[in-house]
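During the reporting period the student researcher (J.K.) took over the structure-prediction task from the postdoctoral fellow and processed the backlog of single-chain submissions. One of the processed entries is reproduced below for the supervisory committee.
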Amino acid sequence: MSAQRSDAAVTHPLDDPVGTSLTGPHAHFAERRGRVLRYPADVTPWAAVPDRPQAADWADAAALAGPGGSVTLTAFREPPPADWEVTFHAEGVQLVDTGVAAAPDPETVRLGPADVPEMLDLVARTRPGPFLPRTVELGTYLGIRRDGVLVAMAGERLHPPGWSEISGVCTDESVRGQGLATRLLLAVSHEIRERGETPFLHAAASNVHAVRLYESLGFALRRRTSFLAALVPGGPPAHPAPGEPAGAAARG
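J.K. obtained the following structure tokens:
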């Protein structure tokens, strides 16, 4: 990572996956102020601050988000200033591909900007975590339709050099239990592997069902992490955080 981004050496791209994405393959999305980076607010809420942020770094994060704006972090070590309102805080896990049986799936279809209304509707029903109008631009998204209706999807989000995060894994209640989430995980993993990169994902540590599924498919725990969302002072009262901002949340 650039010395301008961090005050400590990053020993692995996944130690700061947001920062290494925004200084690497996703640099064209990066909004920067000082040592703070973030994605555009309509792409994904993730931001990156230095490992040991100073008051000036929090001021820069506040300036990027604006009064009442949300700053969402992973792999953070320091809490935000006392006058910031924490709206979400959860322990999480980061898992990496150690032998996933990745394979294409003949029923999957590629999803793009024209499919966003359907994707947003599916996310609203299943709540896998943040999915915004431009999230689809972050990487490949695959879906499964039944009778012309999008009922399951999965795709890519963070993109550190050599790695790609699987995210947005969800299935409609009407088709749960049919293994669609597993098929999509394997299909997206295949897309990532075909580029010579390695799949990884995040999950809430409390989501034991999802973590067990990922481990059964060939993902292994790399590290534990934390997720936090906080509001910049000076805005309206907070609303509850939408879903879990912790990456893939497979259901079905």
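The committee noted the following: The longest helix spans residues 180-194.
J.K. will present the remaining backlog at the next meeting.
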